[in-house]
Amino acid sequence: MTMSSETAAEGHGGASVSKRDFLFLMTGSLAAVGTAATIWPFIDQMNPDAATIAAAGPVDIDIQQLQPGQRVVALWAARPVFVVKRPGPALEELKNPKLLDGLRDPNSQEPQQPAYAANWSRSIKPEILVLVGVCTHLGCIPLFDPEPNATDPAPDWPGGFFCPCHGSKYDLAGRVFQGVPAPYNLPVPPYHFPDDKTVRVGENPPGQTFDFNSILQV
What we know:
It is built from three helices and eleven strands, in the order ββαβββααββββββ. It has helices at about 50-55, 90-95, 95-100, and strands at about 5, 25, 60, 70-75, 80-85, 130, 145, 160-165, 170, 190-195, 200. The two termini are about 25 Å apart.
């Protein structure tokens, strides 16, 4: 089905301006100053049981207007899904040896993603990242902070996702840093591209199998 969404404004550390039944659309640009994301409190609906996940149908997300450095957020299986279009410099940073040395699972060895996303970009198409946006520590929603910064939201910030609840950090592939409370990378859901304009979340590519219930933690 096609996801019907409302647009919510974002500001650094800000809250959602509008939302309807947790279906919403948010974008944040690398060019924007102080880009961040809405923080949702951890609620029961964000931690559905296996039956709920199994029953969830696929969700189509329109990405034809998504620009480099922007993110779309939609809902699948009662969880927020982040879709990010990564620009070239951000993709090159994902392979930076200094960055890799600071990550807990840089090569995606833990089963937090399907086999078809167990690569350096954790994605089918390097420029398009698809993640379940729930911190693997206590289930908060990380901030989207894609712009590198020397001090904010953390020293030597390379761009990525930051959870202000307890300071967990992830790069722009959703890979968790060492020395933070979160134990695992952000999960990658089953997804594929039925056409160049659409990401379909909740459905594997033809010929591929992946059960989201097999991940270690979300």
